[in-house]
Specification:
Pfam families: PSII_Pbs27. The chain is mostly helical. The chain has helices at 38-42, 46-63, 65-94, 103-121, 125-128, 131-150, 158-176; strands spanning 24-27, 33-36. The chain has a domain at 74-176: Up-down Bundle (Methane Monooxygenase Hydroxylase, Chain G, domain 1), CATH 1.20.58.810. The protein is elongated.
């Protein structure tokens, strides 16, 4: 049975006509006329603009090469420092008692720090293969998932807490080994 509100075309669709650019006629003093299109004479081609942009970007990228090596070296130290901070926050937040009045604030703080850590290091290709990144990412995911699902004051079950602490310990060991 067909739907009564279905709109069906009653006529054949027509092809759209192509729009041709208007040509201009230029008359010079020598009584010769030339016909040109305005796009060819006044505006640069898109291809030329893209190639010029690519040349500019590549020349800047080649000039910044020594600078990026220095940035990568400092980012490794920064990664270690920030990951240790996240590890400490995960441990202290997990080990807090259920009746502690600061649990909700600690969970909110952990969520903010873990979100910024993940947003910063998730796209770093050189960090994705590290065991420390993998383990701490997994621990952050488990902790965040628990608190999002059950609320900031819900205690973490013993099995989940043991697995998270094990992942955090493994991540910390890998971090001290430079992995």
């Amino acid at each position: 049975m067909a739907c009564p509100t279905l709109i069906t075309p009653t006529s054949k669709p027509q092809l759209l006509t192509t729009i041709k650019p208007k040509s201009t006629i230029i008359i010079t003093n020598t009584n010769t006329t030339t016909t040109t299109t305005p796009a060819a004479t006044t505006q640069p081609c898109r291809r030329q603009l893209l190639s010029l942009t690519a040349r500019i970007i590549m020349s800047n990228a080649c000039l910044d090469l020594p600078l990026t090596q220095a940035v990568l070296a400092s980012s490794d130290e920064e990664y270690v420092k920030e990951t240790e901070e996240v590890i400490n926050r995960v441990r202290t937040t997990i080990k807090m008692e259920k009746n502690d009045p600061n649990v909700a604030a600690a969970v909110a703080d952990l969520r903010e720090i873990s979100n910024s850590w993940v947003a910063k290091y998730r796209r770093e290709k050189n960090l994705l293969g590290r065991p420390s990144f993998r383990d701490i990412y997994s621990a952050i995911n488990a902790v965040s998932g628990h608190y999002i699902s059950f609320g900031p004051t819900a205690p973490i079950p013993a099995k989940r807490k043991a697995r998270i602490l094990e992942e955090v310990d493994t991540a910390e060991k890998a971090l001290t080994r430079g992995r």
